[in-house]
Amino acid sequence: GATAKAIRTAIITGANTGVGRHTALGLAQHGFHCILACRSAERGKEAVAWIAEQHAAASVETRELDLADFASVESFAAHVRCDFECLDVLVLNAGIGGMGRALEATPDGADHDLVYRVNFVSHFLLTCRLLDLLERGTSARVVCVSSVVHRFAHARWHEHSHFRQLASYEKGMPGLSKDHNAKAPQCSTYSASKLALAVFAAEITRRYGAR
């Protein structure tokens, strides 16, 4: 079964479309049992069917994960921990685009924007909850999907209080067009989330890369 030690297991968030779906296909083609962590169960099932069409021998399933909701993250991680002895690959891919998107509160009213919650904070929580499974994996890897726009993150990207001030952020960002500068608050939130992922990847490498 998929829980056997000999079969490598991978989790890919946001695997119902785009980069996530093709990453899952590639891992399945290399013999991994792939768990597609998707907010929509229906779209997750469609991705499973698509992967099976591309690779008949694929071992793949989908599980619901809503990164906007910490309770969903905790539930997802708890079920994975019950069903699997180890984890070999965790791909932190899911995300919300920030350009042109109005600042939006998280469902629980926490002190950070929805984009930052979905793109980084919940991925951080998920990794922490699955860390012991990763430590038991075979040459386990955590892959953080970032973006070149991490270069435009505000200097105070790591301060939660900064997100309450984004709506009045008027300085603009070097290297962006006038139209893009008009969307600076949203771009800054998205950029901050992508910089946080890059820093997280570096810290994971520093702590566990030599193992």
TrEMBL record:
Q: Which InterPro entries match?
A: NAD(P)-bd_dom_sf, SDR_fam
Q: Which UniProt keywords apply?
A: Oxidoreductase
Return the Pfam families for the record: adh_short
Query: Which GO MF terms does the UniProt record name?
Result: oxidoreductase activity
Q: Which family would the database say this protein is a member of?
A: Belongs to the short-chain dehydrogenases/reductases (SDR) family.
Keyword set includes Acetylation: no
Record-linked Gene3D superfamilies: NAD(P)-binding Rossmann-like Domain (3.40.50.720)
Q: What lineage does the source organism belong to?
A: Eukaryota, Haptista, Haptophyta, Prymnesiophyceae, Prymnesiales
Q: What is this protein called?
A: Protochlorophyllide reductase
